[in-house]
Specification:
This protein has nine helices and two strands. With 177 residues, the chain is mainly α. It has a two-stranded antiparallel ribbon with strand order 1-2. Strand 1 and strand 2 form a beta hairpin.
Length: 177
């Protein structure tokens, strides 16, 4: 029983991270970024590119496409796909709105989205990391450190959000996904 409790305690931080971002590794390119264009994403069921607003798509499919598009630097496609999500107040949606706006230079708008994401889910480690990286870009290192402390306090030690923000603070570079 002690082993079970210890194992569960060790895995909970990673589970919380996984829930906030689906994955802690960059998405692999799929047909969404290899073949589709014009605000279309790959529909695995029909094996075709469809408009991100197509009613046959579920939000998890859209979210995975958003991650892929954002990682590939296709920010307009990511924003279009985000707009098709059914729950615009969901923390993961708000996080990627923040990330995308920040990456296209609308840092103030991005920060507002990160704040909304954290209001919806204070344990969203990815939003905290991206917000912290934006703060590093703005030269607000102490505010970025405050987000790092929050990540650690919420069980994010040794997670991608913690590592990426720590590296950004130490190097001043925020190229991490």
């Amino acid at each position: 029983m002690r082993t079970f409790i210890l194992t569960t305690a060790l895995l909970l931080p990673m589970a919380a991270f996984a829930a906030g971002s689906s994955d802690n590794t960059p998405p692999k390119p799929t047909e969404t970024t290899k073949v589709c264009g014009n605000h279309k994403i790959w529909d695995q069921k029909t094996k075709t590119c469809v408009d991100a607003r197509d009613s046959r798509l579920d939000d998890d499919t859209r979210y995975n496409a958003v991650r892929e598009l954002a990682y590939a630097g296709e920010y307009n496609g990511a924003l279009y796909t985000l707009a098709a999500m059914s729950d615009q107040s969901e923390s993961r949606v708000l996080t990627y709105y923040g990330f995308t706006h920040r990456k296209v230079g609308r840092t103030d708008v991005g920060m507002q989205y990160y704040e909304a994401a954290l209001k919806a889910d204070p344990d969203n480690l990815l939003a905290r990391s991206y917000m912290g990286q934006g703060l590093v870009d703005a030269g607000k290192i102490e505010a970025a450190r405050a987000q790092l402390v929050e990540i650690e306090a919420r069980g994010g030690q040794n997670s991608w959000p913690e590592t990426a923000l720590r590296q950004a603070i130490e190097t001043g570079k925020t190229d991490s996904y």
